[in-house]
Amino acid sequence: MSANLKVNSGSEVALTLAQVALDVPIANWFDYRLSPEWAARIRPGSWVEVPWGSGRRIGLVIGLADESTLEARRLREVIRSLDEAPILPDHWLALIKFASAYYHRGYGEIGLPPIPKMFRTPAGPRARQSAFARMRAAKKPARGTAPPPDSDRAGEPLSTTGPNPTAALDTVLSPAQQAAVDALLEAPGFSVQVLHGVTGSGKTEVYLHWFAEILARNPQAQVLLMAPEIALTPQLASLVRRRFQSEQVVVLHSAMPEAERARGWLAAADGRARVVIGTRLSVLTPMPGLAAIVVDEEHDASYRQHDGVHYSARDLAIAAAQHAGIPVLLGSATPSIETWRAVRRGRYRLLSMPQRMGSAQLPSVETVDLRRDRSGRPGTLSAPVLAALESTLATGDQALVFINRRGYAPVMQCEACGWVSRCDHCSAWRVLHRQSPEPDGQAESKSSRYRLQCHHCGQATTPPRACPECGSIGLVGLGRGTQRIEEELAERFPGHAIGRLDRDVAQRRGAAQAVIDSFHQGKVQLLIGTQMLAKGHDFRRLSLVVVAEGDAGLFSADFRAPERLFATLMQVAGRAGRGAQSSRVLIQTRYPEHPLFAHLAQHDYVGFADRMLEERRDAAMPPFSHQALLRADAQTLEPALAWLAQARESGVALCGTDTDPQLFDPVPMPMQRLKGRERAQLLIEARSRARLHAFLDRWLPVLRSARPRMNWQIEIDPAEV
Ligand code: ADP
Ligand code: ZN
Ligand code: ZN
Fold first, then answer.
1. Distance, CA 422 to ligand 2 centroid (Å)?
2. 107-136: per-residue pLDDT in tens?
3. From the alpha carbon of 174, which atom of ligand 1 is closest?
4. Which protein residues have their CB within 5 A of the ion that is ligand 3?
């Protein structure tokens, strides 16, 4: 894909060709002839309808030219210009071009999918009104698509005029918060700030005050607030709506009804929406007045897109800020190691909030040595933990038990022959789940049934009555998931209200919020849950947090596993003691002497992050090297490996005597089998980013031009290797 385009928007003579990006994986753009009528109206950022094969498509004009590599007679003509569409801002076009070069995909493949479908579907001849006009006029979501109760209130009209929103900012900032806001307001043009604030330090207020000032100073300004998960957007949205004119706040994520998302997207692209709150896809929203970006929980793995183009929305947010010439703020209690390196090198500016708000204190963090507990099977709660739970409950305080595994038991096993419940389609075990009506989250009745379910492909079966291998009826659930811990604690602490929150519970609409509400209200005293509990929640009466399995990931082959474990444990621990009470965090582990726990006990992110940086520097791991993964999958492993081996040969041939980048041998992926496909990967590692991309720019076209009959993708900066 060549990128030597000639953008010539300032020229006085209208150019005769439009370079049009379309959502097809062949080229960055396609040349179309412009009639004089359209040539006078079109510029980069315009939308056009063009012929494509025997049909029509809507595409984005990314440049104008007067010469094409195509023969003149093969050039087709733009059908019409979509004058009613928002003109896409230059900084957005620049971002798309950057992302395209960086992730080695076409402009259209990056830029078009985030645009709501109705805007990029050619209207039939009978459509009286364009989708744009319809969405601008809409006062309410289209019939039949009532927004879910916890989603944003995009049903209200967005006013195009009216005064600046004046924020009702009732909170008085703490000195640390004020210092952070002042520093942000001084930030000149493009700059990256990192707000490293401990859990409960009040990062959200900093975001809101900064935004308020920006929006007040410039009536055209728009701001973008990114959150890692859909589940976190309602609470952010309601906070933001209390501060800014509600109708100028929109939420964008992939789980909302199409019409609602389209209205919000258009309000953002028109410049009418002043505050956009969104998950990872929101980073690609064109916002003409974009003046500031916040990436909350910037370290979170959910910022990675895994379907289609694999991108990091955090990294794209930084690129977006760079192209718009504006400041971006990365907020976290545990910034990613990549971010921390940039802080250490002085490229990002560090803003610290080392203390919690008001009188709240950080919890005391202790490990519980599971080796002392003879009964210890995975996930078992040890005697000291049970004692701590008992005394917490007795005093009327709240407790939380965290285990990052839903279901009853992670695997079913035959005690006679060792058979285990493997998934036929994946390299994984089928997890034993207790199935029950659970009408109101109450403890289940005796009629509960079980099922075996794979968490990767979703395949579920009824558990066999007898072992499929040896016929023995001695089948047991091995280990513990949330359901089993809930069951055991309910038996142990009768008379205390117990709740559970995991993805199974959250499947029922409104159920997750109901559990969280009843915990806030104190109706539930003991809460058991997964990752879903770890983030964002501001519980005020929680004084004991138990981490059932603190070891997970300590000795993983993935070099990022300790970083992820540390961040998760910090997050979970951060739920405790946010009120005035003193609080404890107990982490069960078999390796209490591991240095990670010492840093955790000291709330010492900086020490931990510096240690990680040293380890990675010694091992020449990212961010001290730069990686890409070439992945292939097939019905069986051999052809995937064979194709990668061939690809490697062609890459090695391109490199000649050059040893940077290094191409490793193809290997099966850590999770080799997924949904019936066998998967393999080849790691490419370079000492500099520039070298990596220069190599990929030469190599990927070679791979593409061979038109392999193989499913393959390239992933840049892979999160898991
Ligand atoms: P973080 O995101 O850093 O973990 P939060 O933004 O959740 O922290 O803030 C922690 C708590 O402190 C919240 O209950 C919030 O409402 C409160 N808070 C934040 N700033 C102030 C302030 N300036 N005055 C009073 N309370 C505040
Ligand atoms: Zn058996
Ligand atoms: Zn499976």
1. 13
2. 999 999 999 999 999 877 667 778 999 999
3. 23
4. 423, 425-426, 454, 456-457
Asked if residue 331 has its Cβ within 6 Å of ligand 1, the reply is: no
Q: Answer yes or no: is the C-beta of 165 below 6 A from any ligand 1 atom.
A: no
Ranges of residues in the chain with a pLDDT under 70 are: 1-14, 125-126, 139-163, 165-169, 373-379, 436-448
Q: Mutual orientation of helices 90-103 and 313-324 as an angle, nearest 10°?
A: 140
Residues lying with their CB under 5 A of ligand 2, a single-atom ion: 414, 416-417, 419, 467, 469-470, 472
409 Cα–ligand 2 center, Å: 18
Please count the residues of the chain: 721
Phi, psi of 74 (to 5 degrees): -90, -5
421 CA distance to ligand 2 middle (Å): 11
The two three-digit tokens of residue 578, written as one number: 């946010």
Transcribe 607-668 into DSSP letters: HHHHHHHHHHHHHT-TTSSEEEEEEEEESSHHHHHHHHHHHHHHHHHHHTT--SSEEPPPEE
State residue 214's pLDDT score: 96
Q: What is the pLDDT of residue 684?
A: 98
Q: Give the atom of ligand 1 at the shortest distance from the alpha carbon of 205.
A: 20
Query: Which residues, in sequence order, are bridge partners of residue 432?
Result: 409, 452
Distance CA 431, CA 408 (A): 7
Per-residue model confidence as pLDDT tens digits over 199-234: 999 999 999 999 999 999 999 999 999 999 888 888
Contact 635, 417 (CB under 8 A): no
Q: What is the DSSP string of 655-674?
A: HTT--SSEEPPPEEEEEEEE
How many CA atoms does the CB half-sphere of 216 hold within 13 Å?
A: 13
What pLDDT sits at residue 140? 53
Task: Determine the distance separating the centroid of ligand 3 and the alpha carbon of 618, expressed in angstroms.
Answer: 37
Whole-number Å distance, alpha carbon 452 to ligand 3 midpoint, is 11
| pTM to 2 decimal places | 0.91
In angstroms, rounded to a whole number, what is the distance separating the alpha carbons of residues 577 and 585?
10
Instruction: Please report the pLDDT score of residue 76 as a whole number.
Output: 94
Which ligand has its closest atom nearest to the C-alpha of 196?
1
- pLDDT computed for residue 154 by the predictor: 34
| Helical (H) or strand (E) element with 135 | helix 131-137
DSSP code, position 141 = P
What type of residue is 392? T
